[in-house]
Design brief:
By secondary structure, this protein is of the alpha/beta class. The chain is built from 43 helices and 48 strands. The strands form 15 sheets. It has an 8-stranded parallel beta barrel with strand order 12-13-14-15-16-18-21-23, surrounded by 4 helices. It has an 8-stranded parallel β-barrel with strand order 29-30-31-32-33-35-38-40, surrounded by 5 helices. A hairpin with an 8-residue loop joins strand 25 and strand 26. The longest helix is centred in the middle third of the chain and has 28 residues. The chain starts with 10 loop residues before the first helix and ends in a 9-residue tail after the last strand. Homodimer. GO terms for molecular function: lactase activity. InterPro entries: GH, GH_1_N_CS, Glyco_hydro_1, Glyco_hydro_1_AS.
Length: 1321
């Protein structure tokens, strides 16, 4: 590249050195001269690949990968974002190489101390350009001319499994972006990150670019929402095709095509431009409607089944006179089957009828689909040689099924044709039709009195195309792909029709059964939804797949699409007629209508696009379409099978519309795994959960006549070409054991429950309970001093640790701080006014320790600060609102942090003195006290992870425990001084507030997951609750931390011990259980080896259910059920103490919308769970506090996440408060003191005229019902909407017997609205 200077050992480092200094100079110029007037941000855009170690288990390779990161990204980022200097790895490596070359000094220039200070911190955000990932391994060459490449000591290679792009060596490795973002987060102190370039060069048909953006942006979203990376922007490269540096116009990155042959250079949007537009419009990837769960049931006579096939499970390949099948021969041919596996023994079901029926009974299926082995009953395929032993096997199986009340679904042919028939031409010989009819006649005669459901052929396309076209299945013929599959398919259709007529004419009247054929099909979507050619290709895929066999049977004759395509292409190739055989009019008449139901096998979906095969004569060329997968669809154990649940619903609707809504029985549906067996097959559970729910939607919502569902398969078995390397089973079969033992997987339990419930009933957790809380129930809302007060240096206030932390660059999103916050220090009247509007009985707020005691001690009392709280408390009492005061909500005086803060045990006395002072000065007005809010967050977030003040993270294995220890002792001392000195005269109550998620086992059938969930809870809520309520730390914490400490060579546990006197003094220091709760996680064990860290001690990881509703915070999913469960845990674990819920709420981010229905939904569901805990479970709940009164400074997220009932307009100098819709919804719950039945006529349900708060800013705009409105107009709209909703509600109450429309429920599931009681459900 220009200027084309070759000096790889010196000049790159010199140029970089000057670039860094030039950047710093530009930054300071902007900062000093322009920032205040222009209000902008400035940074540097750094490019970075992700470097993955070739072997993550080899330390040297991991170190090499990190060195690669430091040589590329760290080279520039480290001086700017870390310490003003190059990373140590870069300095040592270049210095060492220079020394080897006997140079007098390092080829890497050095910064002076003055330059370091000048460079450090010269970026407002971290801007990174990322395209690909490289795999690196350690490599050092002999001494050679010095260069940047030689200095690194590594070898690069491509990531082998990822898709290519148009540019060599630039593969699309989406997961590398997430790892890079997390590396930046950890390496550079969690900066705000902007992705300033990301894109791919592909062909004009840019589906691959769409996949690139979809997968990369999805990984960015995961980093933001799951990993806590503070990602603030994404830039797609490039806006349009352009001159691509050294590549000229060869490689094009644009979202828009530019016609460089046209002097006007017209721009045309590509598919990727439309796609990127939709991502921007949705601000990410909202949960598609297809993935929202529907609650409901299938028809009462719904058939729940599981399936197998004779060759796959029976074994006994030569037992008792059985003849050879084409699969016996095919599987014994070398290299046809993976590992040369075969079905000689398989699952040995020929000898295990009792075992198979036993696991079917455990599943509680109503039906079992299996196939008959034609050569087992007719060894040579003809009725001239009947094998009675084979028939007796099936009679015994049928008898056992009936005894277990399981109805058989019997398939006559599932691919294992007698080899004797194949030797005479098999399906190509029309005599096959007569032989199949004779075989069917024998089976109907000998078994039909015990069988009510018959299937003639399973997946005829597989026999025709894979057996006689590709030759990949038995009998393995591939010599005539242009004609043989069509001939075979033709004969299969005619054979099916003859068997159907035989049953209909001879057996139906006396046996009263039904019979049909099972066809299989993927669903096909257009790859590019903006191209008609792709829609046409998708239709052809379905017609050549499903329609090939379904159209003649259900509509008469082949589809016009098939006939025309094959005829036109045959004639164009010079053939006298179409390669697709024709049915005579008599045959059409005999074939049409030969069905009693539509048997359907479905597994996956594809994205189709047209492909021109030229003059090639084959089915694939006739179809003229190819299918690919969306790379974001989940993988399985089979490369062809991607998880795409939406497709089954769309295919079912296609069948409904194309074939007259026939009754449909889904005869196969399932998913595979490969490799090491894991009984915890959560991917299969997800598959069944999503696919079966899509079937329910087709049945309940779309009116598709679905009569049954079959899970494939009952057990792991011989999986055709993959042998035993792939398993579809609900049960694991141990093929290494002669007994072929069967063990249920987690999915078997899951499927059992779906069968038991006949679908997806609305969980009890989500049914509304009508009733009331106790008469003196506390209804409150909450704030915290640093989050709302502002006035950070007003009237003598001292600095707090959050003042310092928020003023540290890159610590807070957007470098926000609480200097002004909501300005509550100057807005007592406004805050009390909105509290009155909310109708709360109590208000929980915290005192800023540094506002009343600037240095943290009583040596200097700031009366002005204390007077603020006097005014607030007096105003609350005048409004008949009781103050609920928190002494410490994280804002420790910085003066105390300077002498060790919570690590210094002198803090215990200082906190006691502070508490004593506050009790003395405010206690006569306050009846409810909290000593410390969420000690877990003080200990872990502030002193473990370091993402909150004071930001300490370098001793995560010891410091959090020391801090927690002192927090507990400080709480106890404050409680005792209140109890001993003030309780009698002030008559208040005091406690500590503890926070915790609820933890569920990820797999409820794995004891290890249960144990992990218990550990997670004991390390969270139990860490602080157990000493206060039960005395001392819980045994789980003490045992685990001690054992791991000793195993690491320490002399004692890293968890401090309480003396007997301290245990006694701490135990019982509560008057109620203050509890903050927001969400639930799914927990599983994680082995951190010898890592001495809180997370290593806990030994548990967590995840979430993908169907849980999101919030504005990545960590907060809407999980109401967990609230009730953790309240019951507190009841059982701590002796049913009186509980006051001191925080509970939900956030939003992005554009302000006053119609915050998600918040109203959250409160309704969570508070109703609390009511259930109180009324049904006997939990002693005394009060509930909604977080938060108003949008405020949300700690490390600044003002980007908002939990408030009231929107706070920071663009207004008056910082006005504006009510959201949730204000009226919460105030109604308060007025009703719970949830009265809609038909009760309770007076709280009557509409009440709302008084709007004063609006001071007429220019600010917010989003309301999708419109940009002024604050005043939005509030008017809100009040009108609320009034209309009240009217609508009463109308609904009067029409309780009318159908209620569906509504989106918790966890993203759709369910009918309830108007009945809990018992009515």
């Amino acid at each position: 590249m220009p200027p084309n200077v070759v000096d790889p050992g010196y000049r790159p480092y010199i140029v970089a050195h000057n670039l860094i200094k030039a950047h710093a100079k530009a930054y300071h110029t902007y900062d000093d001269k322009y920032r205040q007037s222009q209000g902008g941000l400035i940074s540097i855009a750094l490019n970075a690949d992700w470097f993955e170690p070739a072997d993550v288990n080899v330390v040297r390779e991991v170190v090499t990968a990190d060195r690669a990161m430091q040589f590329q990204l760290g080279w520039f980022a480290h001086p700017i974002f870390k310490n003003g200097d190059y990373p140590d790895a870069l300095k040592w490596q270049v210095g060492n190489k220079s020394e080897i070359q006997s140079l007098p000094q390092s080829r890497l220039p050095s910064f002076t101390e003055e330059e370091k200070n000048f460079i450090k911190g010269t970026a407002d955000v971290f801007c990174v350009n990322h395209y690909t990932t490289r795999v690196v391994s350690y490599f050092t060459a002999a001494l050679q001319p010095h260069s940047y490449e030689w200095d690194r000591d590594m070898r690069e290679s491509e990531e082998p499994s990822s898709p290519t792009t148009a540019i060599p060596n630039q593969k699309a490795v989406a997961w590398g972006l997430r790892r890079l973002l997390n590396w930046i987060k950890e390496e550079y102190g969690d900066p705000e990150i902007y992705i300033t370039e990301n894109g791919a060069a592909v062909e004009w048909d840019d589906f691959e670019r769409v996949m690139f953006y979809k997968t990369y942006i999805d990984e960015a979203l995961k980093a933001n929402n799951l990993d806590g990376v503070r990602l603030r922007g994404y830039t797609a490269t490039a806006f349009m095709d352009s001159f691509e540096w050294l590549h000229g116009y060869k490689f094009l990155f644009g979202l828009h095509h530019v016609d460089f042959t046209n002097p006007d250079r017209p721009r045309t949007p590509k598919y990727s431009a439309h796609y990127y537009y939709n991502i921007i419009k949705d601000n990410g990837f909202p949960l598609p409607d297809d993935e929202k769960m529907l609650y409901g049931h299938f028809r009462e006579d719904f058939m729940w089944s599981s399936a197998s096939a004779s060759y796959q499970i029976e074994g006994g390949w030569r037992a008792d006179g059985k003849g050879l099948s084409i699969w016996d021969k095919f599987a014994h041919s070398p290299s046809k089957i993976l590992n040369d596996d075969n079905g000689d023994i398989a699952c040995d079901s020929y000898n295990k009828i009792e075992e198979d029926v036993a696991i079917l009974k455990q599943l509680k299926v109503s039906h079992y689909r299996f196939s008959l082995s034609w050569p087992r009953v007719l060894p040579d395929g003809t009725i001239n040689n009947i094998n009675e032993a084979g028939i007796k096997y099936y009679q015994r199986l049928l008898d056992a099924l009936h005894a277990a009340n399981i109805q058989p679904q019997v398939t006559l042919y599932h691919w294992d044709l007698p080899q004797a028939i194949e030797d005479y031409g098999g399906f190509l010989n029309e005599n096959f039709i007569k032989l199949f009819t004779d075989y069917a006649d024998l089976m109907f005669d000998r078994l039909g009195d015990k069988v009510k459901i018959w299937i003639t052929f399973n997946e005829p396309i597989m026999t025709a195309n894979h057996g006689y076209g590709f030759g990949s299945f038995a009998p393995g013929i591939s010599s005539g792909p242009d004609t043989l599959p069509y001939i075979v398919g033709h004969n299969l259709i005619k054979a099916h029709a003859e068997a159907w007529h035989l049953y209909n004419d001879k057996y139906r009247a006396k046996q009263n059964g039904i019979i049909s054929i099972t066809v299989n099909s993927d669903w096909s979507e257009p790859r590019n939804p903006y191209r008609q050619e792709d829609y046409d290709a998708a239709r052809r895929v379905v017609e050549f797949y499903l329609g090939w066999f379904a159209h003649p049977i259900f509509n008469g004759d082949y589809s016009e699409i098939m006939k025309k395509r094959i005829r036109d292409r045959s004639l164009a190739a010079g053939l006298p007629q179409s390669r697709l055989p024709e049915f005579t009019p008599e045959e059409i008449k005999r074939i049409k209508g030969t069905h009693d139901f539509f048997g359907l096998n479905h597994y996956t979906s594809v994205l189709a696009f047209p492909v021109d095969h030229g003059d090639a004569q084959s089915i694939e060329a006739d179809k003229g379409a190819m299918g690919v997968s969306d790379r974001t669809w989940l993988d399985t154990g089979s490369s062809w099978l991607k998880i795409a649940p939406f497709g089954i619903r769309r295919l079912l609707n296609f069948i409904k519309n194309e074939y007259g809504n026939p009754p449909i029985v889904i005869t196969e549906n399932g998913v595979s795994e490969r490799g090491t067996v894991d009984l915890n097959d959560v991917h299969r559970i997800y598959y069944y959960d999503q696919y079966i729910n899509e079937v329910l939607k087709a049945y309940k919502v779309d009116g598709v006549t679905v009569k049954g569902y079959t899970a494939t398969s009952l057990m792991d078995s011989f999986e055709w070409l993959n042998g035993y390397n792939v398993g579809f089973g609900l049960h694991h079969v141990d093929f290494s054991s002669p007994n072929r033992s069967r063990t249920p997987k987690y999915s078997a339990h899951f499927y059992y429950n779906i069968i038991k419930d006949n679908g997806f009933p609305l969980p009890d957790d989500e049914k509304v309970l009508y009733g009331h809380f106790r008469d003196d129930f506390i209804w409150s809302t909450a704030t915290a001093s640093y989050q709302i007060e502002g006035g950070w240096r007003a009237d003598g206030k001292g600095l707090s640790i959050w003042d310092k932390f928020a003023h540290t660059h890159l610590r807070i999103s957007n470098d926000d701080n609480g200097d002004i916050a909501c300005d509550s220090y100057n807005k007592v009247e406004e805050d009390v006014a909105i509290l009155k509007q909310l109708k709360v009985t109590h208000y929980r707020f915290s005192i800023s320790w540094s506002r009343v005691l600037p240095d943290g001690t009583t040596n200097y009392i700031n009366e002005a600060g204390l007077n603020y709280y006097h005014r607030l408390v007096d105003a609350l009492i005048a409004a008949n609102i009781q103050p609920h005061v928190t002494l410490y909500h994280w804002d420790l005086p910085q003066a105390l942090q300077d002498i060790g803060g919570w690590e210094n045990d002198t803090i215990v006395t200082k906190f006691r003195d502070y508490a004593d002072f506050i009790f003395d000065r405010l206690g006569h007005k306050v009846k409810f006290w909290i000593t410390i809010n969420e000690p877990y967050n003080v200990a872990m977030i502030g002193h473990g992870y370091g993402v909150g003040a004071p930001g300490i993270s370098f001793r995560p294995g010891t410091l959090p425990y020391i801090v927690g220890h002192n927090l507990l002792k400080a709480h106890a001392e404050a409680w005792h001084i209140y109890n001993d000195k003030y309780r009698a005269k002030q008559n208040g109550i005091i406690s500590i507030t503890i926070n915790s998620d609820w933890s569920e086992p990820r797999n409820p059938y794995k004891q290890e997951d249960y144990d992990a969930a218990i550990r997670a809870i004991q390390f969270y809520i139990g860490w602080f609750a157990h000493p206060v309520y039960n005395g001392d730390y819980n045994d789980i914490m003490k045992t685990v931390i001690r054992e791991r400490s000793l195993a690491a060579g320490l002399s004692e546990s890293r968890l401090p011990e309480f003396t007997p006197e301290e245990v006694k003094r701490i135990k019982g220091t509560y008057d109620y259980f203050g509890f903050n709760y927001y969400t639930t996680v799914l927990t599983f064990p994680v082995d951190y080896k010898n890592l001495q860290h809180y997370d290593g001690d806990k030994g548990a990881g967590s995840t979430v259910d993908l169907t849980w509703l999101d919030s504005g915070s990545g960590w907060l999913k809407v999980t109401p059920f967990g609230f009730r469960r953790i309240l019951n845990f507190i009841k059982e674990e701590y002796g049913n103490p009186p509980i006051i819920i001191t925080e509970n709420g939900i956030s939003e981010r992005g554009t302000v919308d006053l119609n915050d229905t998600h918040r109203s939904h959250y409160y309704e569901k969570y508070i109703n769970q609390a009511l259930k805990a109180y009324l049904l479970d006997g939990v002693d709940i005394r009060g509930y506090t909604a977080w938060s009164l108003m949008d405020n400074f949300e700690w490390a997220k600044g003002f980007s996440e908002r939990f408030g009932f009231f929107y706070v307009n920071h663009s207004d100098p008056n910082i006005s408060r504006v009510a959201k819709k949730s204000v009226s919804d919460y105030s109604k719950i308060i007025t009703c003191n719970g949830f009265p039945h809609p038909a009760s006529g309770h007076e709280c349900l009557n509409p009440v005229e709302e008084t709007a708060p004063p609006i001071t800013d007429n220019n600010a705009t917010v989003r309301f019902l999708g419109m940009e409105l002024s604050v005043r107009n939005a509030e008017t709209g809100l009040n009108v909407t609320f009034a209309l909703l009240i009217v609508a509600m009463f109308g609904a109450c009067r029409r309780r017997l009318e159908p209620i429309p569906a509504a989106i429920g918790a966890r993203g599931r759709i369910h009918p609205g309830q108007a009945g009681s809990l018992a009515q459900g």
